[in-house]
Automatic annotation (TrEMBL):
Organism: Salarias fasciatus (Jewelled blenny)
Lineage, highest ranks first: Eukaryota, Metazoa, Chordata, Craniata, Vertebrata
Entry protein name: C-type lectin domain-containing protein
Transmembrane segments: none
SMART domains the UniProt entry points to: CLECT
Gene3D superfamilies per record: Mannose-Binding Protein A, subunit A
Keywords, in A-Z order: Disulfide bond, Lectin, Signal
Amino acid sequence: MARLALNVVLVLCCSLLHFCCSRPSRTRKAVSARGVEEDDVKSQLERLWQEVNSLKEMQALQTVCLRGIKAHKKCYLTIEEPKHYHEANEDCIAQGGTLATPRDATENNELRDYARRSAPGSRDFWIGVADIVKEGQYVDVNSMPVSYFNWDRSRKQPTGTKRESCVALSVAAQGRWADEVCRSLKKYICEYIIP
């Protein structure tokens, strides 16, 4: 009989222990609630940082737009320090943009006029068009095919040589394009998308 009583007590103790451990205590709920609150605060802080960074980018873009011109939901800025094509593109990227890529005649003419006004006496400016990867297949700096061209046919452009793979917009040739040696030093035009 003592054995039976001992077994019953053990089963009751195990059941009670299991029941107590399986239900979350109030302290567990409080810790859990605190964890949820901390996660919520962290996500709010993360969103605020993203917003602050976005505002910083917009402020920087406005500064660029004030120094350059605004057209077609983009800002353009001429850089008067001559660089090789790749250095020019890297500089534009470092400033939050890319080399400018005219998508139609209107954009091309605005770039030409802006370049003429902002850098009087300058002839050629790098733009974001090249056929470096495959000769004759011109792409923009994001490797997307270019559909608008404004070649200077009086100079038999593009020449089609493998040495000349980067495109310059010529102010002297009324905004016509020429493919040039990428290692040539030229001024350039950066493009910034307005969000």
